[in-house]
């Protein structure tokens, strides 16, 4: 028994940095993760990362905090998805007005997401174009292999701080984690309740639409719908039934414009909707036609965003537009949303297509009414027959 307790304590000390977020207010699920994961495998990965740091000569260069005036290069080598990147770097909003500049080095596929950013001074996608002498410190997103390789290869002599350090396992609220880590590493001194209230995915606020886009939008208020999806369980299959039910429920004052957004994987679904006939609704499709930045601008002008958990949903939550969002069983909404998102979630016991179109319409109508009430507008009799 003493030996077993000793082993358990040692494994606990090795798994803690990878499974427990050191900020009590950040939502995460370490216990759920450890129920399906071997403590030994987590400990081995943690030790492997520590060994890589030591062998590369980088361990001694880590600092826990960044000086206020330091010139910073932020390296993001996380997941190559828009949603993850938006959430993981949302904490940079706390750095507005910081004395020292912050630049970003990110993978080519994600560079366009942050171009024109109002926090990052410059955005690079090729480390060969970055001059190490222009920086005092590197901020790493996490201790994953791509990030450590970039640091060791291109910036070996610069000191570095790390936001997420060895944490890699349990599902977590990435937006909250980002704000907590930035507050800590940059020594901003904000209290946890203030961070909780401010937590929200962040991209530069832009509402002005290019003329070529604006002239084809429906007149009056419109809903923005996210078509398609990368994963079947997070791709809604009943948009036509939803719009038919919304058309029936339509009352004067409700948005009659419907704008379809998304990448090329939603083109077939959008094409089918554009062929459908509705009494009150006017559809416009921009699926596969807009940059992410212009799609964000369209959403910023919408009365409501409706879509499943995915990249466009997280982009929508960087705007002031409220949303109704669909979640599969595997994605708890409290780990994807914050109060600042102004989102009404619908989660199923399977995939997102299990959401009944009638329930979705009812939720959308209620969300529209709540939005108008907050704005102090007169309410139409939504849902009355």
Shape, principal axes of CA atoms: globular
- Characterize the biggest β-sheet: 6 strands, parallel
Spatial order of strands in the largest sheet: 8-7-6-9-10-11
Order of helices and strands: HHHEHEHEEHEHHHEHEHEHEHEEH
Q: Helical percent range?
A: 25-40%
Distance between the termini: 71 Å
Structural class: alpha/beta
Weakly predicted, low-confidence segments: 378-385
**Rg value:** 23 Å
How many E-type strands? 11
How much strand? 5-15%
Mean pLDDT: 92
Q: How many helices does DSSP assign?
A: 14
Put the structure in a nutshell.
The chain has 385 residues and is α/β, with parallel strands linked by helices. Helix content is 37%, strand content 12%.
Report what the structure shows.
The protein is an alpha/beta fold. It has 14 helices and 11 strands. Strands 8-7-6-9-10-11 form a 6-stranded parallel β-sheet, sandwiched between helices. Helix 7 packs across helix 8. The protein is globular, with a radius of gyration of 23 Å. The C terminus is likely disordered.
Question: What distinguishing features does this structure have?
Answer:
385 residues, alpha/beta, 6-stranded parallel beta sheet, 14 helices, disordered C terminus
SSE layout:
Elements lengths: L1 H18 L10 H6 L3 H17 L16 E4 L6 H7 L13 E4 L2 H7 L8 E2 L12 E4 L4 H10 L5 E3 L11 H12 L6 H7 L12 H4 L7 E5 L12 H11 L7 E5 L5 H9 L6 E4 L6 H9 L3 E5 L2 H6 L6 E5 L15 E5 L9 H18 L11
Parallel strand pairs: 1-2, 1-4, 2-3, 4-5, 6-7, 6-9, 7-8, 9-10, 10-11
Helix pairs in contact: 1-3, 4-7, 7-8, 10-14
